[in-house]
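Notebook, student rotation project (T.W.).
Task set for the rotation: take a protein with a known small-molecule partner, predict the structure of the complex, and write up what can be learned from the model alone. Partner molecule chosen: flavin-adenine dinucleotide. Sequence and SMILES entered below by T.W., checked by me.
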Amino acid sequence: MNSEQYRELTLIGAGLAGSLLAILLSQRGWKVTVYERRGDPRIKGYESGRSINLALAERGRHALRAAGVEDAVMAQAVMMRGRMIHGLDGSLQLQRYGRDDSEVIWSVHRADLNITLLRAAERAGATVHFHRRLHTVDFDAGYARLIDDRDDQPHDIRFRTLVGADGAGSALRAEMVRKADFDEYTEFLDHSYKELTIPPGPDGGFRIEPHALHIWPRGRYMCIALPNDERTFTVTLFLPNHGLPNHAAPGTDDPSFASVRSGAEVRALFARDFPDALPLIPDLEQDWEHHPPGLLGTLYLDRWHLDGRALLLGDAAHAMVPFHGQGMNCAFEDCVALAEAMDRHGVLEQAFAAFEAERKPNAAAIQAMALENYIEMRDRVDDPDFLLQRELERALQERHPQRFVPHYTMVTFMRIPYAVALERSEIQRQILVEATRGRRDLAGIDWPALARVVEERLPVLEEAR
Ligand SMILES: Cc1cc2nc3c(=O)[nH]c(=O)nc-3n(C[C@H](O)[C@H](O)[C@H](O)COP(=O)(O)OP(=O)(O)OC[C@H]3O[C@@H](n4cnc5c(N)ncnc54)[C@H](O)[C@@H]3O)c2cc1C
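Predicted structure of the complex:
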């Protein structure tokens, strides 16, 4: 099919990726119709029930810029300069993410962000239908059935091309798998999460440092907190689903969702492991008992499109665990890559194939890095080896700014392909581990020898400043 001829597309899901893609394609003259399972968040309030706020980084900002909505989003974002590590003894340590305030991440409210994007999509000419859940698809006849969950009534539509931005549990993906036997597998983490809230203080201000992503690392589990612009924090507690033996206290198990069930049990857990956070969360027991735990997983899918008739992107194609704060950033990057592939190729099947070829290896790379980052966040950020490696990383970055670019910088502040960031990060990690082995500080490092290793193993990265 020649896409120039029709320029008509049906999008499933008006979440983060769906609404951003609707803007980008409408701006290019495509007739975009979007079907969303939930009600209109501008009328009913937001019914997401998960991850109230998100870390926005350069990849996501670039996509918002391309859609002309960056300023509107940034007006409500809160800057996070680094990780604020909360020790068990109440100590605090800020680990900056970058060199200065040009290298920071931003906390954005999912509902506000989604509403900003939806408004812009409609302004750009997209039509959004709410209360329409994709149910089944007849790809050969070009018919899809949508259900209104309020009255269970079916609504049938005709389509030329479906693009699925319907999230990790994508109904379109299920239909594509059924039709074309795609190879699909979700690996669930044996950890889940629950969200809690730190309200504003008595003076209406933030109760803890607002310009940081707070982490309480505790080995096999952890808490994090991100600021919201209404002076609250969203706290996320990540725990194993089942307890494993606690090596520090033989005969006991680490806490888990299996062992911490009641409000009283979660209070006891916080009193023991997160004592400085406990007084900040007045509704701890209620939050715990009313919010269901969220599952975390990585989706592996071997194909993302069915010729020119259907395509998946965002979480629907490559859901990942949230520990690099990149799921949305990656989904936004997908939207720009797809719009550009559609600019380049007149035939949709070719555009979809080019998009898949470009994005699949990169999605796989960030999925792998997100899994690795969980171990780093919960178990390594307060570890002396890790801190020494970070110190050496900063020193090498200063000495070789175009070759030795820290892992976090490549993923978060740059837009080089994730696969390149992964490959270079692995080399750098080996260099850092080898150079710090057996050392307590950087005194005695053979800098000229290290410079030779860096020059040999890390080619210049043009994008680095
Ligand atoms: C705890 C947690 C923390 C996270 N933190 C970050 C972070 O800090 N930074 C970051 O970049 N990412 C983060 N993420 C990842 C991020 O939330 C996702 O990657 C992002 O939401 C993906 O966008 P999407 O549009 O693909 O899917 P979604 O945002 O899930 O949107 C899917 C949309 O499709 C709709 N839908 C679903 N099924 C149907 C259907 N059958 N028919 C019609 N519509 C349907 C849904 O209602 C929804 O509106 C986090 C995720 C979690 C779970």
